[in-house]
């Protein structure tokens, strides 16, 4: 499961220094020569990794894996505190958003000796975990893309077919067929649709598109697919870029159009969004929104909405003639202060193997990073009656789809801290998109340090 990360401690100042020095003082909590401690946050994946641990222990007599599952918020708080106090685990599930900061703070153990090859995993996943220094700090674990979830009954009532919703296009001038579909799915409290005369945008009963808030600086399940399908990129380089590009005319035109959907009444206002209690999936489950962009980690959640007949469609084709979706991927990392590095690396190598990833895939909760693991997951979803092609097709079809990574750069926490209020000001307060010029300058000034 991926939930919006809150910015961790910025990689500057006294706390960063104490974090580095703290690592050198302690060892992983509960670790020993015979035990490897492993942290993850997703309770849904816990059974799969418990099964992998049994396989690992059978292959490595004398080594035990102690798995700790923590809730999302507690996970990052305790991990950061653990780096400072010396109570961090031997191995932990890492997120690309925090990778740059952890690498800068030198709290990760290089994994070059594991012999991980880019070709053994889905495209781009392994390369994302190479630091600026050229060393590997993460072994690919799984991946996800974004698609459009929609209420099948609402679509049918609106006269929209699965074929139509799977072949939408958009542009920042008039929104294309995507905006027309979203408008038609929107219904006010008197029963008027968003594209009908007399529609009351201030009294909406069902919004065509759920809101995911401002999207911080990555917009993974908000505006990222639109920006990328318009030809925009977060940074001047795919990885470890030196300049963000939020001052781009293309990006700002996308943001203006996207948040403009709320001004037209087709998407809820920012005030309706709550990161804890009213995310996209909550709005769809409650029948308050007909569609939502969301990630593959939410497949089982949407499938479990009773009486909603949830289906999925590809993201719309943009001005470049291609669809786009962020392809994010988690990894397993070894902590620098681990007192059982040999055992930790053996465990990470096993986690990254076809043997473990095929086991994880058979649980049908996430797409593992290896092709074999992915195939096992697709088969598991199929047995549950769930079609996941809207998530897998963009990865296979490079001719018609663009996949891109979360922005990988130093000081990602600082970027998020600056972009979050900037995007919310545009969305919720009507601030002009040109205000992103100044925000972009501030971020790039920090990045240049």
Automatic annotation (TrEMBL):
Q: Where is the signal peptide?
A: 1-26
- Which Pfam families has this protein been placed in? SBP_bac_1
Cellular compartment(s)? Cell envelope
The name under which this protein is listed is: ABC transporter substrate-binding protein
Taxonomically, what lineage is the organism? Bacteria, Bacillati, Actinomycetota, Actinomycetes, Kitasatosporales
Highest taxon above the source species: Bacteria
Report the InterPro entries cross-referenced here.
Bact_solute-bd_prot1, SBP
Any GO CC annotation of this UniProt entry:
cell envelope
Q: Which UniProt keywords apply?
A: Signal, Transport
In which family does this protein belong, per the annotation? Belongs to the bacterial solute-binding protein 1 family.
């Amino acid at each position: 499961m991926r939930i919006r990360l809150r910015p961790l401690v910025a990689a500057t100042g006294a706390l960063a220094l104490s974090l580095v020095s703290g690592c050198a003082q302690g060892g992983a909590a509960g670790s020993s020569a015979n035990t490897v401690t492993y942290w993850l946050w997703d309770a849904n994946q816990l059974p799969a990794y418990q099964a992998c641990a049994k396989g690992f222990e059978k292959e490595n007599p004398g080594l035990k894996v102690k798995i700790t599952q923590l809730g999302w918020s507690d996970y990052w708080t305790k991990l950061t505190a653990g780096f400072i106090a010396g109570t961090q685990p031997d191995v932990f599930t890492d997120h690309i958003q925090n990778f740059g900061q952890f690498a800068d703070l030198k709290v990760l153990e290089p994994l070059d000796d594991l012999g991980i090859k880019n070709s053994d995993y889905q495209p781009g996943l392994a390369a994302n975990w190479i630091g600026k220094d050229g060393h590997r700090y993460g072994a690919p674990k799984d991946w996800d893309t974004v698609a459009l979830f929609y209420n099948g009954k609402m679509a049918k009532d609106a006269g929209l077919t699965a074929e139509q919703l799977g072949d939408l296009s958009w542009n920042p001038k008039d929104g294309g067929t995507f905006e027309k579909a979203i408008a038609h799915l929107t219904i006010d409290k008197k029963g008027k649709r968003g594209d009908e005369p007399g529609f009351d945008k201030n009294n909406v009963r069902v919004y065509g598109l759920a809101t995911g808030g401002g999207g911080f600086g990555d917009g993974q399940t908000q505006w990222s697919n639109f920006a990328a399908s318009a030809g925009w990129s977060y940074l001047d380089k795919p990885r470890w870029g030196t300049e963000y590009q939020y001052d781009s005319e293309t990006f700002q035109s996308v943001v203006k159009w996207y948040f403009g959907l709320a001004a037209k009444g087709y998407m809820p206002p920012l005030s309706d969004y709550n990161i804890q209690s009213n995310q996209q999936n909550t709005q769809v489950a409650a029948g308050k929104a007909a569609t939502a962009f969301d990630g593959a980690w939410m497949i089982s959640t949407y499938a479990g909405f009773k009486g909603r007949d949830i289906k999925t469609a590809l993201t719309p084709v943009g001005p470049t003639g291609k669809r786009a979706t962020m392809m994010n991927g988690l990894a397993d990392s070894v902590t620098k202060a681990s007192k059982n590095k040999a055992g930790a690396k053996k465990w990470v190598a096993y986690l990254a193997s076809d043997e473990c990833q095929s086991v994880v895939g058979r649980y049908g909760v996430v797409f593992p990073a290896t092709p074999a693991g992915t195939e096992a997951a697709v088969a598991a979803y199929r047995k549950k009656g769930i079609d996941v092609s809207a998530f897998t097709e963009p990865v296979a079809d490079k001719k018609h789809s663009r996949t891109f990574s979360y922005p990988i750069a130093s000081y990602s926490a600082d970027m998020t801290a600056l972009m979050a209020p900037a995007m919310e000001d545009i969305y919720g307060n009507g601030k002009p998109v040109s205000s992103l010029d100044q925000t972009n300058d501030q971020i790039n000034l920090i990045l240049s340090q």
